Amino acid sequence: MLLTITYEGQNTQELGYLLHKHPDRVQQFDLSYGKAYVFYPEVSAKRTTAALLLDIDPIDLARGKLGSRDGGLFDYVNDRPYASTSFMSTAISRVFGTAMGGRCEQYQELADTPLHLTAQLSSLKDGRETELARQLFEPLGYQVTTKRTLLDEKFPEWGESPYIDLTICGTVKLCELLNHLYVLIPVFDKQKHYYTSEAEIKKLLDHGEGWLAGHPYKEKIARRYFPARGSYARRAIDILLAGEPEAQENADTLEETLPEENSGETARTPLNTQRMEAVRDAVLKSGAFTVLDLGCGECRLTSLLLGEAQIKKVTACDVSVSVLEKAAKHLHLDRMPPFRKNKLTLMQASLTYLDKRLKGYDCACVIEVIEHIEPSRLNAFERVIFEYASPKTIILTTPNREYNAKYETMQKNTFRHGDHRFEWTREEFSAWTKHICERFGYRCEIRGIGEMDETYGNPTQMGVFTKNGN
User: Fold this and answer.
1) Contact 172, 141 (CB under 8 A)
2) How confident is residue 83, by pLDDT bands cut at 50, 70 and 90?
């Protein structure tokens, strides 16, 4: 497996100082599962490339028990010698540990400066999850290119390989690039070659400091980083979310913290995460390019949408200026990559007053908002969204009141959140959507989000409204 890092600019041969590896010779490092080599295929004033090559011996793997899981022939015949997995992450830490810490006594100013860097990594196993590489690296400001080949050109019916060659390019500090690679390489394969202990939680958070908490797919990263340790993933996610108080202030606390039945050690996806991902998928399926996030709160949905190449513009609206200020911090607006920042508009607006700025969008999302509106103001809300803004698609979610019976700590005839003005049953929600469709010329598909109960339904109900004629 091979990783190359290319620095383009002025005096690029100084990459050797930053990596603490001299360009004039090949250096060898003994690892418990093979050997690592560092060399420089090209060195010049304007372009220098450093390469990290791993030579893994499958016999050593089997004898040393590292990477050995199933016994028998699989111990010797597997993809470990050539696929980029956690072996590469370990090698990065072992060989480039000082550079990962951002330390360079002779060239500290250069180490602290964002550089034009390109990293190429061969044979990443993404399991044909075609958007995974972009989901992981584009939110960090990289341009992402992937290449996938057929399993065998002579037998095209066998299909494409589950491996990709990855190229990422961006203007970042070298230490940032190395830490991004260290954390995200194992996320592709979901299988670590060593025993995972609780210390791995701290390791993930340490190497993710400054970027992981703000990543729109941080929960997916944590779950895939700990595929066999659901409790570790949940603890990491809780710590990441705890660093964002604005995310907690706007969440329906009860439904997010109660454990689901029979969860055991399986990684539990919080209901709010399921909700946001379901809405994002519905937005993409609608074909929308421009989106309103109405009542955006801490902008968790906005953050997800900004990471999608299909989406060209997202306007996040909230009635509270202070909430928008917190959202800007949550999105790390001050250091957001330009390609994401150019898509985003934060706007103060009320959903019960006519506002011409809301017109002209393909899709509007109203996520867990309507239940906070006074019933006497619902008619104004309906006209503002469905009559005046009138996008092709409107996606609205709200709690299912029937499901509250599943929450043992809830008192009877109470709501999930202290600011809720009402909560609808499934029948009431269905009746309201029919009223909307008849009045404003839409059709609606109702879907459930979260764990399905035969008696009470799903905890969240979602209506996807599509304007007639579209």
Assistant:
1) yes
2) low
Total Cβ atoms within 10 A of residue 295:
23
Q: Which residue has the tokens 């809720």?
A: 420
Count the Cβ atoms, other than its own, within 10 Å of residue 148: 13
Computed from CA positions of residues 263, 267, 273, 274, in that sequence, does the dihedral angle turn out positive or negative? negative
Type of residue numbered 60:
D
H/E run at residue 396: strand 393-399
Among 367, 360, 242, 349, smallest CA distance to 299 is for 367
What is the helix (H) or strand (E) element at residue 279, kind and residue range? helix 271-286
Strands 47-56 and 34-42: antiparallel
User: CB under 8 Å to 70, separation ≥6 — which residues?
Assistant: none
| Closest C-alpha to 7, from 41, 35, 37, 30 | 41
Percentage of the residues of the chain whose pLDDT score is greater than 90: 50
- How would you list the strands of the sheet with 344-348, edge to edge? 344-348, 313-318, 290-294, 363-367, 393-399, 460-467, 442-449
Rounded to whole angstroms, the Cα distance separating 100 from 111 reads 10
- List Cα–Cα distances, 178 to 74, 96, 147, 217, 248, in angstroms: 31, 8, 21, 19, 31
Q: How many residues does the chain have?
A: 470
Tell me: the pLDDT tens digits for 259-277? 333 334 334 578 888 999 9
Closest among 154, 144, 52 to 97, alpha carbons compared: 52
Q: Decide if pLDDT at 193 tops 60.
A: no
**Six-digit token pair at 402?**
């029937």
**CA nearest to 60, candidates 87, 42, 41:** 87
Among the ranges given (76-80, 116-120, 237-241, 378-382), the one the predictor scored with the smallest mean pLDDT: 76-80
The answer to whether 392 and 424 have CB atoms below 8 angstroms apart is no
Backbone dihedral region of 339: left (phi > 0), alpha (psi from -120 to 50 degrees) or beta?
alpha
**Placement of tokens 């997800």 in the chain:** 304
Q: Is residue 104 within 8 Å of 175, Cβ to Cβ?
A: no
User: Which of 329-338, 363-372, 414-423 has maximum average pLDDT?
Assistant: 363-372
